[in-house]
């Protein structure tokens, strides 16, 4: 089984342990570069976004680059703090 190594920017052969891990869910916190790479490879099927009621003037975005990403809302909830927890899947 080949796996993509985002740090090295290349595919590599996996062992049985990494093959088992590849079938499980993966959560990425605060890594727009890794998320972009996995999205380009078609390895992301769902986004769980936490939307905070704060406006920032800068920073890296997972969604920059001009390509439109269409998402379908699966569920959402608003927390007492005003933060919105939303779950989306990629539209096919």
Description:
This protein starts with a strand and ends with a strand. It is globular. The longest helix has 9 residues, at 32-40. The chain is built from 2 helices and 5 strands. The chain has 92 residues and is an alpha+beta fold. The protein has a domain at 28-90: Dihydrofolate Reductase, subunit A, CATH 3.40.430.10. 17% of the residues lie in helices and 32% in strands. A 3-stranded antiparallel β-sheet has the order 3-5-4, with no helix packed on it. It has a two-stranded antiparallel ribbon with strand order 1-2. The relative contact order is 0.18. The protein has helices spanning 16-22, 32-40, and strands at residues 2-5, 10-13, 46-51, 71-78, 84-90.
Terminal Cα span = 26 Å
CATH architecture of the domain at 28-90: 3-Layer(aba) Sandwich
The fraction of residues assigned to DSSP E strands is 25-35%
| Overall spatial form | globular
- Note poorly predicted spans: none
Radius of gyration: 16 Å
**Tally of individual helices:** 2
Helix share bin: 10-25%
Provide mean pLDDT, rounded. Answer: 75
Relevant CATH superfamily of the domain at 28-90? Dihydrofolate Reductase, subunit A
Reading off the top of the CATH hierarchy, the class of the domain at 28-90 is best stated as: Alpha Beta
Order of strands across the widest beta sheet? Answer: 3-5-4
| Largest sheet composition | 3 strands, antiparallel
SSE order, as H and E?
A: EEHHEEE
Structural class by sheet pairing and helices: alpha+beta
How many extended strands?
A: 5
User: At the third CATH level, what is the topology name of the domain at 28-90?
Assistant: Dihydrofolate Reductase, subunit A
């Amino acid at each position: 089984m080949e796996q993509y190594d985002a740090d090295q920017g290349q595919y590599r052969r996996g062992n049985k342990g990494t093959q088992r891990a590849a079938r499980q869910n993966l959560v990425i916190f605060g890594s727009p570069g890794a998320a972009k790479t996995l999205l380009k490879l078609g390895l992301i099927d769902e986004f769980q976004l936490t939307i905070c009621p704060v406006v920032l003037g800068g920073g890296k975005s997972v969604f920059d680059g001009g390509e439109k990403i269409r998402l379908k809302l699966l569920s959402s909830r608003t927390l007492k703090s005003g933060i919105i927890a939303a779950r989306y899947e990629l539209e096919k």
